[in-house]
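FAQ

Q: What does a record look like?
A: Structure on top, sequence underneath. For example:
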């Protein structure tokens, strides 16, 4: 036996052994997708306009602060909300002899994001197109990271979280296999979880809330711009919610959830669930100073614009504390998870929701396996009938091809979906098609009077271009499906792409080796059963 044949055989056997070891046990190495395992499928829309408004408000305040630092004490700014228009704000109160200061502040600190013009109202700053595009993209990317962190904390195995369609899309596809409580997951994902600690202004001592009328009466019907009226739950002596109470709190926050270092569930004074938090060191020092200077004053804990509680400050609070809100253990767990993962940068809207039960997933597995086995069985039988011994050769190569596909899926951590099973079945068909091209070409060479060995060599050589062409064009289509598709479509594209490479290896390299191995063991071959 030729040395080259031995080397080829060793390579094939080693590759086959490696592939088989890579997929055993199959249930542990191959992850099942949503349609096979059951779970949730969500399409979320990110309200990127929220991020633009937040950035506009931040820069508006910074612009006024810069002007006042430069001596323009009467400067003020107001955001303009015009539907469909670019984000903008108007700067007013600038004396004519200080107009150059506005230009200097703009060029020094804001020119890359905002373009400035002068109108009847004052100086109008409009966000540039590239800045809007970048902020929208950042909002979606940050939302994806936040959702992934929350899902990971929730304990979902093999979640799929990705943008839908093009890279500038504001939609996110979330697939969570094996989820048993869809409503809880939706609440956790959709929770903004923006936490703030704000000083109370009325009632200043920080007891329970009061009525809205009492707050308005306190300010004589003119609530200052630095104060905001927020709602909270009104509870009875048993802790049951019986209505709504109101709090007058300062708009500026002392500390926010972004300053948290960690959050976890703990036990309160009466062993009730609370959320214990830890602040970053520097913010802890600032918080300690602020609470020391305001002992006896109320501190409102505000979550997503709602007051959870408003305890009085009895002493210095630095980097550790508790959040009490009459939570159940599950609510405290979800809140700590949301806080640790960070606040969403913008609102989230659920655009599409599907839930697949485990029994339906098992039915999909059974039907997919039956379809695959029936299809593969018919192919194997037909190859033996039509091509005899050569058909046996093709069937061995085909079996190795399927093993290679599953091994590649396991190695790359890909998820097998129902469309993925369809891709594997299509791979079987394409692998058979490659063998048919080779076998028919060998038949033509035999009819032309060539010897068996020459016919085999020529058949593989001349069929190669057709095999490569057919598989490369299919691979290009699969790559487009993967790039622009999502969820199940990507699952189909992955298995099809892997199958194409497996087809090229087995139909050209392995099948040719089997022919050469059979011919090498015979001195003279007068006839090839094909």
């Amino acid at each position: 036996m030729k040395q080259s044949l031995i080397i080829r055989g060793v390579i094939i056997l080693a590759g086959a052994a490696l592939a088989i070891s890579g997929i055993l046990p199959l249930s542990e190495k191959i992850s099942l997708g949503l349609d096979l395992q059951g779970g949730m499928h969500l399409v979320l829309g990110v309200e990127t306009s929220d991020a633009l408004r937040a950035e506009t408000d931040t820069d508006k305040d910074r612009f006024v602060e810069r002007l006042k630092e430069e001596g323009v004490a009467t400067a003020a700014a107001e955001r303009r909300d015009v539907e469909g228009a670019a984000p903008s704000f108007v700067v007013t109160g600038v004396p004519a002899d200080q107009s150059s200061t506005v230009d200097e502040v703009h060029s020094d600190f804001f020119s890359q994001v905002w373009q400035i013009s002068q109108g009847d109202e004052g100086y109008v700053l409009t966000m540039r197109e590239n800045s809007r595009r970048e902020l929208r993209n950042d909002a979606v990317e940050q939302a994806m990271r936040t959702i992934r962190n929350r899902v990971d904390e929730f304990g979902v195995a093999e979640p799929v979280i990705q943008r839908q369609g093009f890279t500038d899309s504001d939609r996110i596809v979330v697939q969570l296999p094996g989820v048993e409580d869809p409503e809880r997951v939706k609440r956790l994902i959709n929770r903004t979880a923006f936490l703030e600690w704000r000083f109370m202004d009325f009632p200043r001592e920080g007891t329970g809330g009061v009525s809205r009328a009492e707050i308005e009466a306190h300010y004589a019907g003119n609530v200052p711009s630095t104060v905001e009226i927020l709602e909270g739950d009104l509870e009875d002596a048993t802790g049951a919610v019986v209505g709504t109470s109101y709090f007058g709190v300062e708009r500026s926050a002392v500390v926010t959830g972004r300053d948290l270092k960690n959050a976890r569930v703990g036990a309160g004074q009466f062993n009730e669930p609370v959320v214990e938090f830890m602040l970053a060191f520097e913010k802890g020092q600032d918080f300690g100073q602020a609470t020391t200077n305001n002992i006896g004053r109320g501190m409102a804990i505000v979550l997503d614009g709602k007051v959870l509680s408003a305890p009085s400050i009895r002493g210095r609070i630095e980097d550790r504390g508790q959040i009490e809100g009459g939570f159940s253990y599950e609510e405290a767990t979800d809140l700590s998870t949301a806080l640790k993962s960070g606040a969403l940068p913008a609102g989230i809207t659920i655009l599409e929701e599907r839930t697949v039960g485990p029994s339906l997933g098992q039915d999909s597995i059974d039907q997919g396996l039956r379809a695959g086995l029936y299809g593969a069985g018919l192919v194997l039988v037909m190859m033996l009938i039509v091509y005899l011994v050569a058909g046996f050769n093709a069937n061995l190569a085909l079996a190795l091809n399927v093993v290679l596909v599953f091994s590649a899926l396991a190695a790359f951590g890909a998820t097998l979906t129902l469309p993925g099973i369809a891709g594997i079945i299509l791979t079987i068909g394409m692998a058979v098609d490659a063998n048919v091209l080779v076998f028919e070409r060998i038949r033509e060479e035999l009819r032309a009077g060539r010897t068996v060995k020459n016919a085999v060599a020529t058949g593989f050589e001349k069929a190669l271009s057709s095999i490569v062409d057919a598989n490369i064009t299919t691979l290009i289509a699969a790559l487009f499906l993967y790039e622009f598709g999502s969820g199940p479509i990507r699952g189909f594209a992955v298995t099809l792409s892997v199958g194409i490479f497996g087809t090229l290896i087995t139909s050209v390299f392995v099948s040719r080796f089997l022919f050469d191995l059979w011919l090498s063991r015979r001195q003279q071959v007068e006839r090839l059963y094909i």
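Q: Is there anything notable about this one?
A: Residues 341 and 366 are 38 Å apart (CA to CA).
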